[in-house]
Design brief:
Layout (H helix, E strand, L loop, with lengths): L1 H6 L10 H4 L5 E4 L6 H5 L8 E4 L10 H5 L3 E3 L6 H17 L1 H9 L15 E5 L3 H12 L3 E6 L3 E4 L3 E5 L3 H5 L4 E4 L13 H6 L5 E4 L8 H9 L5 E4 L19 E3 L10 H18 L17 E2 L2 E2 L1
Parallel strand pairs: 1-2, 2-3, 4-5, 4-8, 5-7, 8-9, 9-10, 10-11
Antiparallel strand pairs: 6-7, 12-13
Helix pairs in contact: 5-7
Length: about 300
């Protein structure tokens, strides 16, 4: 935080001191992006005119008074794009090559020859056309997969995601996928989008990968689909409730890979978050536009592509 401290008078607070500190603050750097404390602590008058959050997702931050007010919200878009894309590619390879099964057999000292799948030519549908979804699309394309996307706006020739179909074609598109990758923000439009109907639309050989938010998936519907073999597997880095309860059936399902919300967290990621905020703080001091300004009504930073926001 040395660069931030050079640019501003910094006060570090924990949740109990937040309400007292906010009225005198110009800027809030929300480091604990899992905290729900801000809504209760937000002052009736005064307070920061800019809130920056150390995550790409802003769903926990957008309480009604903040959305309705003039406060500028920025996020940490860009820090996690490539790490998450690498993680998704790793999961695709893990499924195709049966690495989770291999490790299980190794733990049992069992030698069992198996045949595996090719990823070249497999079809991946990426739900979400922001920077993370686009990085995933580029990475999977480079590995030989055929990629298409689902987003708010259709585009037949997107440079990163091939054909992007609109959300109203979700179930139709899911039925054509070998891998479904969730990379969309959590909004009222996307909450619960992967439900029984969506899972029924998927192929029995398809795998679901979620590196977005757990609430995009109706977890009970997913558990039923996995148990009944209606889809082949799921790799889940996010969950409806985190940490995932030790009693969750997801822990014990053989066709599920569970990871603790770590897909974007690579060595040095915390410093990258600080560097991005420091850059924005310098921009503010110089009167320049801030990076990653969130459209509070949409719930994310609109992506400029081909001359228009999406």
């Amino acid at each position: 935080m040395a660069e931030v401290e050079r640019l501003a008078d910094v006060r570090y607070v924990r949740e109990p001191e937040l309400a007292e500190a906010l009225p005198g603050a110009d800027v809030l750097f929300m480091w604990d992006f899992w905290s729900d404390a801000l809504a209760a602590a937000w002052p009736e008058r005064g307070g920061p005119d800019w809130v920056h959050i150390a995550s790409a997702g802003v769903d926990r931050l957008l309480f009604p008074r903040l959305v309705a007010g003039d406060v500028v919200v920025t996020n940490s878009r860009g820090v996690f794009d490539e790490p998450i894309a690498e993680y998704v590619l790793g999961l695709v390879l893990c499924f195709a090559k049966g690495l989770h099964t291999t490790l299980g057999l190794q733990a049992q000292a069992r030698w069992r020859h198996r045949e595996t799948e090719r990823i070249g030519g497999a079809h991946a549908v990426v739900v979400g056309t922001g920077p993370i979804g686009r990085a995933i699309g580029r990475k999977l394309t480079a590995a030989g997969l055929r990629v298409s996307g689902i987003g708010r706006t259709a585009d037949p020739g997107d440079p990163d995601l091939g054909e992007i179909r609109s959300m109203d074609r979700l179930d139709e598109t899911l039925g054509q996928a070998d891998y479904v990758v969730l990379a969309a923000p959590l909004t009222e439009l996307t909450r619960g989008m992967i439900d029984k109907a969506a899972l029924t639309a998927m192929r029995p050989t398809a795998r679901l990968i979620n590196v977005a938010r757990g609430q995009l998936v109706v977890e009970d519907d997913l558990i039923d689909a996995l148990r009944e073999g209606r889809i082949a597997g799921a790799a889940l880095d996010v969950f409806e409730t985190e940490p995932l309860d030790e009693t969750s059936p997801l822990w014990g399902l053989p066709n599920v890979i569970v990871s603790p919300h770590m897909s974007g967290d690579t060595i040095g990621w915390r410093q990258e978050l600080v560097d991005l905020f420091a850059d924005n703080l310098g921009r503010r001091a110089a009167g320049r536009p801030l990076r990653n300004v969130v459209d509070k009504r949409l719930g994310y930073v609109p992506t400029q592509q081909k001359g228009r926001a999406r």
